[in-house]
Amino acid sequence: xxxxxxxxxxxxxxxxxxxxxxxxxxxxxxxxxxxxxxxxxxxxxxxxxxxxxxxxxxxxxxxxxxxxxxxxxxxxxxxxxxxxxxxxxxxxxxxxxxxxxxxxxxxxxxxxxxxxxxxxxxxxxxxxxxxxxxxxxxxxxxxxxxxxxxxxxxxxxxxxxxxxxxxxxxxxxxxxxxxxxxxxxxxxxxxxxxxxxxxxxxxxxxxxxxxxxxxxxxxxxxxxxxxxxxxxxxxxxxxxxxxxxxxxxxxxxxxxxxxxxxxxxxxxxxxxxxxxxxxxxxxxxxxxxxxxxxxxxxxxxxxxxxxxxxxxxxxxxxxxxxxxxxxxxxxxxxxxxxxxxxxxxxxxxxxxxxxxxxxxxxxxxxxxx
Length: 369
Description:
Elements: H1 3-8, E1 14-18, H2 41-53, E2 58-61, H3 70-78, E3 85-90, H4 97-111, E4 115-119, H5 125-130, H6 137-155, E5 161-164, E6 169-173, E7 187-190, H7 194-203, E8 206-209, H8 214-226, E9 230-240, H9 243-257, H10 260-271, H11 275-286, E10 295-296, H12 300-303, E11 309-313, H13 314-326, E12 329-335, H14 339-368
Parallel strand pairs: 1-2, 1-12, 2-3, 3-4, 4-7, 7-8, 8-9, 9-11, 9-12
Antiparallel strand pairs: 5-6, 10-11
C-alpha cells in the first residue's frame, strides 16, 4: 500500500453540496451587488429534502452581504427537515466568539446536532469593511485562530472560558446552552494560503481545497494529511451517461451564459485578496481548460473559482473521485447547474459506483490481512 493510500485506508468518502444557488441556476454569474439576500424558503426546503433523499451529508450555507444570514437560515431550515446537516460558513470578524458559540449550540439543540462549520477568512477587503473589519489577509487568519481557540474552549466543557489575546479578551465566560450530540461541531477550514493551512492543522477536522490533478494536488495537501487532518475538495459536477453528453452540456452552459459574467469575475478578482480565488482564476485564464481527462476549468471565468468541474460520464466521474481518494481526498463539496438535477444524477448513477468500489476494496483488504 502506498503512502497516499494509507492516508485514506478504510475511510468512506463523504459527500456534501452547496446550497448557495438554491432556486437560481446561474447565481454565480451575477455581480454580488445585483444578487438578492431574500431567500426563497420553498426552494431551499425542496433542495434540503432532495439532498436527504440523495444521501448528501450536509449543505453549505454561504456567508456574505448578498445573502441571508447563514445561521438564521440554517435554523429555519433545520426545524423543517429531518436528516440533512447544515455546514454554516463563518468569518471571525462578524461577531463575538461567545455569541457565535451560543447561536451554534442553540441550532444544535433545535436540530439534534445537525450543524457543522465552514471557517473562512474573508475574500474581499471592501466587503469586510461593510462589517467593520479593516484587518488585512494575514491578520484575519491570526484573529480566526484566536476566535476558534475560544470556541473550542467552550465546546471542551470547561467550567468557564478565559482568553486574553491580541484580538479577543474573554473573562469568566459561561454558556448554559451546550452543544447537543458530541463535543462540538465538526470544523472545516477553507483556503489556499499558508495561513489557511496552518489554521486547518491547528483547529479543523477537514481542510477544503480547490482541485488540481491528483499528482499536482498531493504535494499541496501532504502536510495537512501528515497532521492527521482530512482534506476535502470543492468541485462542481457535470456528469452524464456518456462523456460526449457531458461535454455538450458544459458547452451549452457557456453558450447560455454569454460573455458578460467574464467581466464580473475579472473585476471581483481584482478586488479580492483571497489566494484561492485569485490563483484559480489565473489558472483558468492561463492553462488549457482540461487540467485532467475529467477536470475542466472552462466555467471559472464565468461562474467563479468553485466552478472548476469534473465533467464526464458517470463511470469517468466515479473513477476520478476514486483517484482523488488515492491522493488523500476523503470528502467532496459539490455544485451543479442546476444543482437539484445534478444531485439526482450523482445519487442515482455516480454514488452507487463509488460505494461498490469501496465495498470491493474493503473485502480485498480484509482478505489480505
